[in-house]
Fold each of these.
Amino acid sequence: MMAILESMAHTHADVLSLLPLPLATFHILLALADADRHGYAIIQDVAARTGGELKLGAGTLYRSIHRMLEEGLVAELRERPAPEEDDERRRYYRITPFGAAVARAEARRLSELVRLARAAGLAPGRA
Amino acid sequence: MWGYRALLRLLPASFRAEYGGEMSAVFARRRGEARGPLGAAVLWAVAAFDVAGTALGVHAEILRQDLGTVARSVRRSPGFATTVVVVAALGVGATTAAFTITDHVLLRPLPFPEPDRIVRLSQIQAARGYQDMELSPANYRDWKRMSRSFAAMAAFHGLSANLVGEGPPERLQGTAVTDEVLAVLGAKPLLGRSFTPEDGREGATGTLLLSHGLWQGRFGGDRTVVGRKVLLDDAPHEVIGVMPPGFHFPSREARFWAAMRLGERDFERRDDFYLEVVARLKAEASLGGAGAEMRLVAAQLEEQYPDTNERIGATVVGFHDYQVRRQARHLLVALFGAALGVLLIACTNLASLFLARALERRREISVRAALGAGRERLVRQLLTESLLLGAVGGGLGVALAAAALPLTARLVPNSLPIAETPPLDPRVLAFAALMTLVTALGFGLVPALRVFRDAHADGLREGARAGGGRKERLRSTLVVAEVTVAVVLLVSSGLLIRALLRVQGVDPGFRAEGVLTLRTWLPLPRYEKTADRARFYREVLGETRALPGVAGAAYVSGLPMVMRGGIWGIEAEGGEPGKPGAGSTASIRYVTPGLFRALEIPVRRGRDVTEADTEGALSAAVVSESFAARYWPGEDPLGRRFRFGLLGGTRLAVLGAFQDRTVVGVVGDVRVRGLERTSEPQVYLPYLQAPEGAMGWYTPKDLVVRSDLDTAALVPALRRIIARADPDQPVSDVRPLSEIVETETAPRRVQVRVLGAFAGLALLLAGIGIHGLLAFTVSSRRPEIGVRLALGATREDVLGLVLRHGLRLGATGAARGLAQAGAAGRGLEALLAGVSPRDLATFLAAAGVAVSTALLGSLLPAVRATRVDPLTVMRAE
């Protein structure tokens, strides 16, 4: 309930107040960017995306999701997306517009950092 | 999977309920993918870390939220928070202080290795009523030789000597010991060496171990002190070492230890009892076995030396038990009981406070429960609040206990080889933490659970009256219990106050006010000759009497209540014959003229001793009234004669040279043995008729000066006078005589103050409890009061209603308290100095105080009840 209320009234300041994002949070947002997923699917997606580098533990995942729900970054789905694949017990999560805004802001922040690093000659690519 | 589910128990229940199933599902998929036993092991390790880390994080988050809630609620009702903190602080503080001291004295082992194996050995002579007697050197030697139970055995006796060299001469308390004493105690010197058998040989140079305090104070902690020569009572002694800090033996008064040198001559006398004995049990020996062996040894000696050892037995007692006398034990148990009583009241109060608090919040809790907050989550929040407030209170309590320690420390008996002030160490802090936890948990949790249970049932019903009849009865019971405990403590401290007053009212037989005393212990052999001593006394007394304001000055061989011994047998002419041990005894003092005037002891008949009572003149004596009444009842005692008989064997044979004494004066009786004991009749002998030679104990050494001016101002002048008479003569024990008399009642005053403080605390807490209950009742019964007022009840009726309620609680508690106080009084009987444990006045006073407190506590709520405006409350309803 709180998440819905908050997602309606988010300002740019709210977005900035959450940066920088914890690594797990950012990856969960990326995993949910293209599709609604349940927990195990998020873990698999993150692992695939990072080439097996980041394997989220179940505890880390759900603690992050718990906080992200409170912050309004994600929402839990009431309806199941694909009933034939659905596992009764699964909970599906969807990124909120606010979540997408925060993920974009984080990405901007990171690329700005990379640009600065290049200028200092500490990262590959053009300055 | 049960393993993973068990792991999930680490998570807060609310989080587990929400995500536990999901997490288990994820783990199940992962396990399906894991290959081989190694893969499974890695999976488990990662899962354990993951869950534990998550649990920590989620718990911390919840704690942060709850603390925020607590902070808000404290801001909303600071009165509640303050009351809880104060009540918890008082309860935890009182118990912690009492535990510290009890632990220090009774529970904690003495600071020696394997302290349970250290024992005291003493002679008993039941026929004469002596429970523990010192040994003679001969008996000691035989006991040591004939026993098999002990790894080491040592003898010691108290010693008091003038130390000369390095700074001003000083009179020091010490202990003469045989060489094995450190082996018995398992102690080693910090510097230098222990005593050896060589040090104890007759004719050996005196050797000396310094206490850490003496070394620091007098020798400035100089490490080259070992090997240094000092004069102890004019005899050369070598310092052989320094003991570590915290080493005390046999009590903390001893500041040095000197090797006891016993010669064959000392072993001749089997009936000269002055050695105290400690020993260390062998590993395989038991206390009981050692006792049996020593009884056997004593029986053999009795057979062998029937003249001296007739009916002399032996006892072996644990060192710790021996040093803590029964009275001190009683007192500490009473103290701890009182502290537990205060804690009980504090807990009851807290329970009552939290209960009221929870009832007030019932609506809030019901709303939150209806919105889906789990039971665990709500209870946890309430617990966080009670724990936090409890912890603040507990911390404050420990600070209180630390502040109160100097007062309670005075209950530590002097006879123990431990520091006077107990430390606030981890054990004590752990105890305080435990008390806080018990208090906060027990009395935060129960009301919280209870309210939550009810919240579902009827919390949301509109206009539900907070606090049903059942809950109010529970709170009333708690408050009545508080008053009960407070009354028991009040009666106990009341009885102790009565006992103190009774003892303070005892006439000591002299007037202590305006008298200064100090001690100049003339060393032997320099002052062996009576004439030399007389020159010193005359010079000092002559100049002292010339000081402005001095109304009298004299020397005496022992001050009343300080020197209690000096008891000799008496055979009176024409009176009943003196029977040794049958109580025909008197306490003997050698005095200079002027003692009776200086102490204002009334002279009833005849005269004081004079300068004319010299060797060769009539052997004179001044006796006390009880002496005259005992031997010559109804007759004129002046001119009657008596002799010193034999008491306890031949040690007094040296006094056989004494001629008959003729009574020249009769004076009032003095409480020589102290205010609480019966004293022997007194005999005063002229100082010029004291025997020559080694009678050090009986030579006058205490100067008493009566002055109309401030006695403390006399001290510098007296020191100058004494230094002129003998520059090497130390001055010690400078104090007003009134302080000596007060010292007599000092333990009692401490008892009264400590127990009184506990009783006062209990009363205060009970008052808070009554106030809290009534304030709550009044606020929850506002509608009812409003109706009553609307129906024509007067403000006085309402006032009476609330006051009667408070009075009923107070009276019920007082009645129960009085019933219990009888038992408490009997437990204290040993401390009551003859005051009846059922002393009516004390009981009535305690009941009165308790009922008044109840009324006082009800006053504010009662007044508030009269201010209820019927219109407002009925509109709100």
Amino acid sequence: MDTQKFVIRQISIFSENRPGRLAAIAHALGEEKINILAFSIAEANGFGVVRALVDHPEKAHDKLQSQGFNIAFTDVIAVKMKDQPGGLYEVAKMLGDSGINIEYSYAYSGKEGAVLILRVDHIEEAIKKIKNSGAVLLERSSFHG
Amino acid sequence: MTYWDPRIEKIPQADLKKMQYKLLKSLVYRLYSFSPFYHDRMKEQKVHPDDIRDISDVRKLPFMFKRDLRDNYPDRLFTASQDELVRYHVSSGTTGKPTVVGYTQNDVDIWTTSLARGLTSIGLGRGDVIQVSYGYGLFTGGLGMHYGAERIGATVLPTSVGNTERQIELMQDLKATAIACTPSYLLHIGEVAEKMGISIKNDTCLKTGILGAEPWTESMRTRIEDWLGIKAFDIYGTSELSGPMYTECAEQQGFHIWSDIALVEIIDPKTEEPLEAGEKGEVTITMLQKEALPMIRYRIGDISSMEDGVCSCGRTHPRIRRIQGRVDDMLIIRGINVFPSQVEYTLMTIPEVGQHFQIIVERKGALDDMLVRVELNKGSFSDKINDLMQIRQNVEHRLRNALNVNAEVELVEPGSLPRFEGKSKKVIDKRSM
């Protein structure tokens, strides 16, 4: 199975926890006409990590790096959910039954329905298990232009 | 091994002592006879020039402090008239009112000679291109280094500070082999060069850094040398002594203090007693040949120790070790003495954090609270919060071990801490605001 087409490049940005940092990131991406499809902020004491799925991750990486941001690529996967009560339960149960450990996750509900973004330990193995369970994984091409 | 003046640089130590004694004796007679300030000071101390019978009798003489210069602003301590002066320099006054230093032609010549010996001992000379990125003007760094570099026959590139991108272009185009600036400005130059896609190590001819005008550490030296592919040498001096005057030799084991020019003592700042070689204390200098503004037992406020053996480079003049802090930049945190240089030393050994840092001290309730802000290096960021927490904990742990006091650490974005072109200001003590 070609697992690679399900691997999505998320950008992660180190950010101090002070007003205006998210605006600075969003402004830089807007200037480059980069569309943000989903994002989340994880915060610890004093700093945070902004994670985002964008349509042009390389362009976003270069732009933010040139502005001095500390930025890294991270591989994630996206599982389609039913956009109705119980939708998350179905996917979460499947992940639990398949023994997939989630490092972190965030979700959005968009044009193609509800999507759960997952960062997992062993991405290839996880992709195989999810496919075997019959759940739908979104391909990289549906995010990156 | 090349020497600028081997006759004096390798003179037997016994002869050097005799020479110092003669110079000191005539200096003291001159000042006692012609300077009301020194005359009164010596009377107060109940010392007469006849009491100076040996070089160790220097300790009978009264001390001088920065405040003596300030209190006598602008020129009341000068022992030369204005028409004998060829130059003024004025200190920036970061710790109070500015101080003015005047120079006769002979003062400038001796200053220049001192640097010529030092620069030669580093291995610089004819054929080198020395980029002087110290400020030119009232500050002594730019002009002092300029004269010293010209004297040894090197080509001077007088870029002064600022306009960093142009400095880097000129460094490349004119093939600068050495740069003289503050260590923090060299770090800034290195970062700006990287942004321009230029590696100082691979894309320039730079081989030597002559770095000073602010305290720095051995671990900073290692980092600069590895990163930029140069040898970095410490240089020492202050405007009261003339300016930047004393460099390390190729051995990198402390500054040679030319004993025909200056008599150095290390004293205990509390008891004011002289300390033995190797013991740490306050650097105190008597300038033996200055004409316009003599300095006797001047308490510079820098903390270091002295080595008085013959250096492996063959020079017989004593060395003072890298400056470890200032009597007045020592922070007292919960009763424990902390020098910013200790913080720098510790941080420079942790690869995940950058060269720039800031110490913020506040009083929270009855307790002093020290916060160290440090930049997370690119490449050490992995998306995982846990990794970041671990880096921070590690830095806190290492600082606690080194300082014996708790410091909270804040990881900040690269490039977000202030950069300095001249002397850097790394400590914000809100307790005194």
